[in-house]
Amino acid sequence: MKQKELNLIWSPGQDYIIHRRHPESPDRMELFKKIIQDFELKLQTPLPLGRSEIEKVQFLSPETELDPAHQMAAGAVKMGCAKLLENQRALILARPPAHHSPRLSYGTRGFCTINNDAIGIAHLLKTRPGLRLVVIDTDAHHGDGNEDFFFYEPRVKHFSLHQDGQTIFPGTGFPEVTGVFNNIYNIPLPPGAGDSFLYQAVTELIMPEAENFSPDFIIHVTGFDGHRADYLSALNYSDQILALISLIIKPDLTIIEGGYDLEFALPLSFPPLVKSLTQPGYSISPPPYSGKISRRLEEIKRIREESSRELEENKDGPLQRNISFFYDEAFFAEEREETFYPCSKCRGLIHIRSTCFSSREFLYIPRGNCPQCEKKAENWPKEKGAIPLLIRDDPF
Fold first, then answer.
1. How far is CA 144 from the centre of its chain?
2. What pTM was estimated for this model as a whole?
3. pLDDT tens-digit profile of 326-380?
4. pLDDT tens figures, 7-66
5. How far apart are CA 330 and CA 323, in angstroms?
6. Can you list the alpha helix ranges (DSSP code H) found in 37-96?
7. H helices within the chain, ranges in order?
8. I need a labelling partner for 257 at 20 to 30 A (CA). Which of 129, 170, 344, 346 fits?
């Protein structure tokens, strides 16, 4: 079968600089551009998204400032997702990155201010509501912002393989977190994990789950910050492991997030990844098998299944979670209380109380809700005394 056309979507954000010595810099994109020239792929430039369009998906506090680079990066992922509906594939090289930016954004955290990934995927699901998507995140850091967006979304199965949150920012991503529809799968990797751990996690845990989900599209969110030369993590990956993972999962859309070592990690890891997407027959030998790793993965699986059973036993009543998002750039935190009200006829309602400088309350109404939940939402402020309450259509 002929390989689908690969679109290279480019949004370098040259004028956006967090500060002069910050690792997330335009220099990364210049290096990408030099490397990609060897592959004769045409760079496509997206259209920027206006703040109003971004805010249809993500709440931005009035204090959250957007640069044109943010708007272009969001447009890049939206454009890449649209290519999937044209029976094409896409590779997205855009900055600044996205996957640490949660549903409610109060600024920049983990180099991310808005969530380009979620904005593009929301557009995709709104355009084709019956789609099922698998998102596999192999960036070194837990994709906590993406998890936050997809926590209540049954059409998205979100996998994150990352350095254990006890040892790295953002301090999250543990296997007992499963999402209300059993759609969140976290695999924390120990420092020094190396290629074998990542490879066995993908082949032994992720791919069986992903295939059982029968997705229409697979989205690979990745970065080169797990490379042994990148100082922002301690995962000790080789030059070729992410390309091997790409060959295994066969993504329809690849989104580059992190990767900050410009001397070794990025220039040595990026070319194999592009080859995995562009050269039929390209192959990479797998790393050595380890029974010790398999036993560790079985323990992760057991913890997750136990948590899922507990959730299933309590599925008829309101489900509550308390979470915190630390904004490392400005050194403050959002504290959040969420309650999910399930419904046997639709996707229920999500109530959020968010505290960051001041308190805000939100009621999210997923699309296609039943008349009873619509009525419940309409009467909510009067019955619960939640005034003012920001009632928002859930972006998905």
1. 7
2. 0.96
3. 999 899 999 999 999 999 999 899 999 999 989 999 999 888 889 999 899 888 8
4. 999 999 999 988 888 999 999 999 999 999 999 898 999 999 999 999 999 999 998 999
5. 19
6. 51-54, 68-84
7. 26-36, 51-54, 68-84, 116-127, 144-150, 194-200, 207-213, 241-249, 265-278, 291-313, 371-384
8. 129
